[in-house]
Amino acid sequence: MKNINNLKDRTKKIAATLFGLYPEAACSLDYEKPHELLIATILAAQCTDARVNIVTRDLFRKYTSVYDFAGANPEELEQDIKTTGFFRNKSKNIIGCCNKLIKDFDGKVPGNMEDLTSLPGVGRKTANVVLANIFGIPGIIVDTHCKRLSGRIGLTDNEDPEKIEFDLMKIVPREDWTVFSNCLVYHGRAVCDARKPKCENCLIAQYCDFFHNNRREMNKGGVK
Prior knowledge:
Layout: H1 4-21, H2 34-43, H3 49-62, H4 66-70, H5 74-80, H6 87-105, H7 113-116, H8 124-134, H9 144-153, H10 161-171, H11 177-190, H12 209-220
């Protein structure tokens, strides 16, 4: 079991470095209305934000309200979002989500975790994105980058996104939850690649278990 105080101290140093590196770190999904961010985040599952933004550029012109999405033809919506992957399930969730918004929330996106996660296709990650960016409520957003980096660095031993979220909540100050998550995304894209992390260019390498473990393995093999 890792010492929580040591983790807090290490995370504080990591955060300070990342905040300086990525002062522009923010949600990279394009949207104008709360329901658009909700739908874009549903589409972003197993898909890049860049691809989602290409798709939603036309999607949000075609379907301009929650009511438009609720009444969409499933097969037509599938084709509209096909390039985001898992399009049948996403189409079903978007239509179901918007119908529930109309039925239970007067067509408005709710501002709390319990109500958001009651919507089809909405888990804690999507809910935290909406809460942080629409309602200004801090949240740890565990996407693929956050999961990969927090594990590599050694901030969590868990693989389950919800457990990772709660692990990070214990060691990151609440007011920094959202920006810390966004910075991990930016660093994952720029430096800590899934296949070939650029450890030699990483300014938080000194705080990273992955870096130190790999360096020890290299040294064992006689590589200095």
